[in-house]
Design goal:
By secondary structure, the protein is of the alpha/beta class. Helix content is 41%, strand content 12%. It starts with a helix and ends in a 5-residue tail after the last helix.
């Protein structure tokens, strides 16, 4: 039964296409270039489930911040205008991708987007857990992702999620163990990977998160996306220029 549940979750995380974007985009010249990085929780798949990006974009726009979401991917779902502005659809979310796959692709993506000022690193290692891959390798990959981002921009600020859980009835013993370990490991990364120029920060997405915020076993509904966006916004307001 556990293998069946894990198999279904992997299929759900792979629901979004793993293909590349339509072509290179102009490199942003904005201040506060923000790279949303991760898998399907970043990518979203309207109308089935939501990414936090739209709600976060609205929060930032509503409070008059200057910023630009960057990434080689584009969100082709329909989003309402907000304050007469069209949603910034750029991101680096790839449904189903593991930490190793993200690490492997990241250097090429950064060469196309230019260096981000801020990276939002979503659900680190979640797909590794769903696919039964090595926990220690996932941690090594995440640290290597941070290293690569800091080489690309020595002044980058990286916000890593202490991720929201999946629906309670699918959190097997194995998944719960991974989830609890990685939450602590994220705090270790913020201490061990912060440099004199580059902050590595955590954002707590699991405290107060519950089943009512999920559209399915692992992805956000609209309320869940708003919950996640608010948590991100409360960290971002302290670091945006």
């Amino acid at each position: 039964m556990k293998l069946f549940v894990l198999g279904m979750l992997v299929l759900m995380f792979y629901a979004c296409n793993k293909g590349e974007g339509d072509g290179p985009k102009p490199i942003s010249t904005s201040i506060n270039k923000i790279l949303p990085l991760g898998a399907s929780r970043v990518e979203g798949a309207r109308p089935n489930y939501e990414s936090y990006r739209y709600e976060l974009w609205k929060d930032l726009k509503e409070n008059y911040w200057t910023f630009d979401f960057i990434g080689t991917q584009s969100d082709n779902a329909g989003y309402p205008f907000f304050n007469d502005d069209e949603f910034d659809v750029d991101h680096e979310g790839r449904g189903g991708w593991t930490s190793g796959e993200i690490l492997e692709g990241l250097d090429d993506w950064l060469s196309q987007t230019g260096p981000p000022d801020i990276v939002l690193l979503s659900s680190p290692g979640a797909n590794d857990a769903l696919q039964g891959l090595s926990y220690s390798q996932a941690v090594s990959n995440i640290n290597a992702i941070i290293d690569l981002l800091q080489v690309d921009n020595p002044n980058v600020t990286i916000i890593i999620e202490q991720m929201a859980p999946g629906r309670s009835d699918i959190m097997t013993t194995e998944l719960t163990g991974f989830f609890e370990q990685i939450q602590q490991e994220v705090l270790n990364m913020t201490t061990g990977q912060t440099t004199s120029n580059s902050q590595v920060l955590s954002v707590d997405l699991f405290t107060g998160f519950n089943n009512d915020l999920l559209a399915d076993d692992v992805h956000y509904n609209e309320s869940g996306a708003d919950f996640i966006a608010n948590r991100y916004y409360n960290v971002l307001v302290n670091i945006l220029e």
